[in-house]
Every structure is written in structure tokens, then in C-alpha cells.
Amino acid sequence: MENLDQDISFDASNQLAPTREMRQNWYETASWAKFISIVGFIMAGIALLLVSSLTTIFAMLAQMGVDTPGLNLLNSLGTGMTIYMLVLVAVQVALNLFQYRFATRLKTAVQRTDQVAFEEAWLNFRNLFRWSGVFLIVLVVFYLVFSLYLLAVLLPTEGG
Length: 160
Fold this sequence. Notes:
Order of helices and strands: HHHHH
Number of domains: 1
Number of strands: 0
Number of helices: 5
Strand content: under 5%
């Protein structure tokens, strides 16, 4: 990949100059990013409450006499599914943390014209997308492996 800075000379006349409209857009972006990250933290908390009661719900449904193949499968996968859901919640919290840091640092940078805060904001933004991509690839691979596993387990029982 070629370096984008190789053709740019670093004299003062060639620097980007943020306009008032750009600063307003950054400030509004920071406000929305902070709002969305806080909603994400709340959703992670709700998911954590759901995950903590997941095995109890499955056990209660089994005691009530609900006997379906899907419930039996979920009940047998209870511990593994709980661990998987906890990992997903942890990933969501980590991504929300990058987004929250981006929002707060960007808002600080715009309000105080702080170059260091501006650079830290965009570093967190870059990390947000970098780790989102990594976790998405891991999730897709996991789903493919899990789907193949389920096919390998369920198909022989249907034919035999």
C-alpha cells in the first residue's frame, strides 16, 4: 500500500485548515457518537442481565414440561451459549468504549482547539473500525464453523 503522505510537502501553506462548518459537523458527530455509545452500554447491560438468567430460563421451561427439539438443543448448549453471549457482550462494551472515547475527545478538541485531543479522538475512531472488522471476521468464521457443526450433528439423526 502506498503512503499517501509521500507527495505532500509539510510546509505551513499546505496544511488543512478546518472551517467553522467542519467544526460544527465534528461537534454534532461527537454528540451523536456519545449518545449511541451510551445506548450501546445500556443495551450491553440488558444483554448481561438476560445472559445471567438464560440457563435459569431454560431449566424452568424444561420443568414446566415444554419439550421442543429447539429448546432441548438450547438447553444442552446452555453453558457454551452463556460463555458465547458473555464474549459478545464484552466485545460490545469494548467497541462502545472506543466510540465513547472518540466522542468525548472529539468534543474536547473542538471546544478547546486541542490538537492532541483531536489526534486521540481519531485514533479511537480508527481503533473502533479496526476492531469492529476483526470481530466481524471472527464472528462470521464462528458462525460458519458452528453451522457446519450443527449440520454434521443433525443430518445423520434425520436419515437414521
